[in-house]
Amino acid sequence: MINGTEKFPKGFLWGGAVAANQCEGAYNEEGKGLSTQDIAPRGIVGPITEEPTEDNMKLIGIDFYHRYKEDIKLFAEMGFKVFRTSIAWSRIFPNGDDEKPNEKGLQFYDDLFDECLKYGIEPLVTISHYETPLALSKNYDGWVNRKLIGFFENYVTTIFNRYKNKVKYWLTFNEINSVLHAPYMSGGIFTDKEKLSKQDLYQAIHHELVASAKAVKIGHEINPDFKIGCMILGVPNYPLTSQPSDVLEAMKQDRDNLFFSDIQVRGYYPRYMNRYFKANNIEIKMEPGDEEILKNTVDFISFSYYMSSCATTDPEKKKGAAGNIIAGVPNPYLEASEWGWQIDPQGLRYILNLLYDRYQKPLFIVENGLGAVDELITDENGNKTVNDDYRIKYLNDHLVQVAEAIEDGVDLMGYTTWGCIDLVSASTAQLKKRYGFIYVDRNDDGSGTLERYKKKSFNWYKEVIATNGGSL
Ligand code: BGP
Fold first, then answer.
1. Which residues lie below 8 Å from residue 274, measured CB to CB, with a gap of 6+?
2. Residue 344 CA, ligand 1 centroid: distance in Å
3. Rounded CA gap, 400 and 387, in Å?
4. Which terminus, N or C, of the chain has the lesser number of Cβ atoms within 10 Å?
5. Reported pTM
6. Helix H or strand E encompassing 85
7. Is residue 434 scored above 60 in pLDDT?
8. Which of 401, 344, 392, 396 is nearest to 372 (CA)?
9. Domain annotation covers residue 93
10. CATH code for the domain in which residue 58 is found
């Protein structure tokens, strides 16, 4: 354990994170077009619907669209230095391929960012967080179609120009590597996952990677002070046993994940993919200039971290795999959350070191947290609250490991907890899977007042930020 009251660097960006489609609601207000999320009432697991349906909790979300002022005030009270949110592409370009942007959508984010800046909170903006304008998904099959690059360029140019004096920190695609597991949610790909060929999948990935690099180029031209990062789903893979075949399998699974950031950080396709492409008859169609564009590398690497996973070549042991988007083999040494996500604070120290050794560029943890069922109670002063000691423990244990990684020499820009206010879960589309420091009175049956209540963890996090990690 390291000593000292200040375990984190000066200017460390403490804060919280959300995504537009999981909190804003107002799915059809002020000119917004439909997005892929508006017809996905069961998250990753379930089928999509023809039209938006009332049981889709994301249509109302936590009504952040109308209540963001109240919420940002609470974030400011906790002392946030940074607030990560995303822009809903279909609020700006309702169909994705429109010629002109929707002014009301642009105005909404102007107001939102102003509200953050009023309290000295830096916005950290994800350009595409698990939502694509539905028309781009249906009419073009999402990122399978190269035309998406042009539409995305148009979108990023519009938002970079509009917010160039308000937003400094940007992320291109949320968990870009998750397209391997959830091509509809992550890549707007309309073709059924089972019917999607590997050729199309990797071609779509190529288009996203080119689009991401173009965004970096355009962003730096518009404002050289922009810091533009990639964002990956960070799941370190441990060999289940010390059998060399398991060790190699873990390396392989890490590469499946890091293939994306390898390109975004280094600027070219890693050689280890050649074998995979050959074995699967994949031939990436590149246009002249693509390789040059990919050289526009990111300024920093951001990632989410919820769990680690185990790798094995033994088919028997693969049974019982569970977890986030990536179904991993359970680790016999770890406990799991109510949703089967294995809790591994040391894994966060491990992946921080792994990524820093690999890339030697600043890192940013932009998601970490515990999804749990919370019970709203009334305390002795008559205030409604949640005694979420389990969440405090989870976050505290992880942050202690973050401090260790910093001591190991990792250059870390900041830390934003996932779902700093309760919101709709991405994988299950439930509200009962809560992450927040702030409880939102809304339930999966649609009931609730939408009132906000501070949980016990609210004051805990406030103290962590006030002491720059000294209270951990
Ligand atoms: C990540 C996503 C987030 C978020 C988080 C928690 O994969 O980037 O959008 O939701 O996971 O997952 P869930 O909401 O399924 O609990």
1. none
2. 17
3. 21
4. N
5. 0.97
6. strand 82-86
7. yes
8. 392
9. yes
10. 3.20.20.80
d(Cα 308, Cα 237) in Å, to the nearest integer?
Answer: 6
How many domains is the chain partitioned into structurally?
A: 1
Q: What does the block give as tokens for 297?
A: 């590398």
pLDDT above 50: residue 1: no
* ipTM surpasses 0.95: yes
Core vs surface per residue 360-398: b (16+ CB within 10 A) or e: ebbbbbbbbbbbbebeeeeeeeeeebbebeebbebbbeb
Task: Exactly one of 24, 131, 175, 208 is catalytic; name it.
Answer: 175
8 assigned to some structural domain: no
158-195 tens-digit pLDDT: 999 999 999 999 999 999 999 999 999 999 999 999 99
Give the domain range for residue 195: 13-466
In the residue annotation, 175 being an active-site residue is answered as yes
Query: Which value, to the nearest 10 degrees, does the dihedral of the CA atoms of residues 280, 286, 292, 298 take?
Result: -50
pLDDT in tens, 296-322: 999 999 999 999 999 999 888 776 665
Q: What is the rounded CA–CA span in Å between residue 25 and residue 23?
A: 6
Residue 238 identity:
Y
In a domain, 191, yes or no: yes
Q: Which two tokens stand for residue 194?
A: 């089972």
Is ligand 1 within 6 A of the CB of residue 174?
A: yes
Q: How far is the CA of 427 from the centre of ligand 1 (A)?
A: 6
| Nearest CA, atom 3, ligand 1 | 426
Q: How many CB atoms lie within 10 A of CB 286?
A: 14
Task: Write the pLDDT tens digit of every residue in 101-126.
Answer: 999 999 999 999 999 999 999 999 99
Please name which of 194, 169, 164 lies closest in space to residue 47, comparing C-alpha atoms: 194
* Listed residue (439, 302, 438) closest to 364, CA to CA: 302
Question: Does ligand 1 come within 6 angstroms of the Cβ of 17?
Answer: no
- 168-178 burial, b at 16+ Cβ within 10 Å, e below that, comes to bbbbbbbbbbb
Does residue 472 lie within any of the structural domains?
no
